[in-house]
């Protein structure tokens, strides 16, 4: 079946540095991918919609200059957390849907970011 | 935009009892409502979903009901087992195009006591 893969699965970085997380659709093309953030014991909060070949659409309250999204190909979207701070520590998850109205939605494994 | 409310936040039942989790949504155009089970540190796993053209769907011990008029949907788990213990999330796909975008409820931590 279709698979969505994220990398890295976990990352630790120093405050002020930038971290890039990749989301790949392994056996299908995804013109649209979605990025979520999940704090401990909380729900998944939609951050943005990643659109292949165009700018991402950010949800209200999400800083587009802090969370840079690039969707340069039909199988890869990247989320870069710029100038990371401890409050950015979270579980970041992407998702992508196979084609068609009744296509199937797949989530990546998630990436645990810890900012020291 | 779409808003999804989920209750209760925690639910404790005895093994063999039933568990019911309820969600409401705000966007009347939404037409896809999945339920996910998530274990700590893992990705959400789809357990059942329902589209707006049906009122109920069942898969073994799990069922989902949808009331479009009232804009609420519920997850029913019968004959609960300890391995059902997890966090459950409802979600709604805003608008009518089902792009894959989901708005999640706050989650319910289900504990099934042996």
The largest sheet of chain B, given as strand count, sense and whether it forms a barrel, is: 6 strands, mixed
Biggest sheet character of chain A: 7 strands, mixed
Distance between the termini of chain B: 41 Å
Q: What is the count of β-strands of chain B?
A: 11
The computed structural class of chain B is mainly beta
Order of helices and strands of chain A: EEEEEEEEEEE
User: What is the assembly state of the chains in this entry?
Assistant: heterodimer
Helix fraction of chain A? under 10%
Work out the helix count of chain A. Answer: 0
Q: Mean of the pLDDT scores of chain B? A: 95
Structural features, described:
In chain A, the strands form two sheets. In chain A, strands 2, 4, 5, 6, 9, 10 and 11 form a seven-stranded mixed beta sheet that branches. A four-stranded antiparallel beta sheet of chain A has the order 1-3-8-7, with no helix packed on it. Chain A is built from no helices and eleven strands. In chain A, a hairpin with a 5-residue loop joins β5 and β6. Chain A has 116 residues and is an all-beta fold. The model of chain A has no long low-confidence stretch (mean pLDDT 93). Chain B is an all-beta fold and 114 residues long. Helices cover 0% and strands 54% of the residues of chain B. Chain B is built from no helices and eleven strands. In chain B, the strands form two sheets. In chain B, strands 2, 4, 5, 9, 10 and 11 form a six-stranded mixed beta sheet that branches. In chain B, strands 1-3-8-7-6 form a five-stranded antiparallel beta sheet, with no helix packed on it. Chain B is globular, with a radius of gyration of 13 Å. The relative contact order of chain B is 0.34. At the A-B interface, β4, β5 and β9 of A face β10 of B.
């Amino acid at each position: 079946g279709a698979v969505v893969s994220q990398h890295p699965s976990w990352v630790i970085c120093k405050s002020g540095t930038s971290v890039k997380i990749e989301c790949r659709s392994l056996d299908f093309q995804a013109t649209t991918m979605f990025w979520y953030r999940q704090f401990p014991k909380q729900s998944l909060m939609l951050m943005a919609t990643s659109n292949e070949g165009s700018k991402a659409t950010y949800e209200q309250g999400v800083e587009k200059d802090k969370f840079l999204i690039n969707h340069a190909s039909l199988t890869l979207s990247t989320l870069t957390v710029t100038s990371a701070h401890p409050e950015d520590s979270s579980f970041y998850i992407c998702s992508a849907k196979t084609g068609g109205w009744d296509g199937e939605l797949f989530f990546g494994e998630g990436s645990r970011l810890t900012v020291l | 935009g779409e808003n999804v409310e989920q209750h209760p936040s925690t639910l404790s039942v005895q093994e063999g009892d039933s568990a019911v989790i309820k969600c409401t949504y705000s966007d009347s155009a939404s037409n896809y409502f999945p339920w996910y089970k998530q274990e700590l540190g893992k990705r959400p796993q789809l357990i059942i979903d329902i589209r707006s053209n049906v009122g109920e769907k069942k898969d073994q011990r799990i069922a989902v009901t949808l009331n479009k008029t009232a804009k609420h949907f519920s997850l029913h788990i019968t004959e609960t087992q300890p391995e059902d213990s997890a966090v459950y999330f409802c979600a709604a796909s805003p608008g009518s195009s089902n792009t894959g975008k989901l708005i999640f409820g706050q989650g319910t931590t289900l504990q099934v006591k042996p």
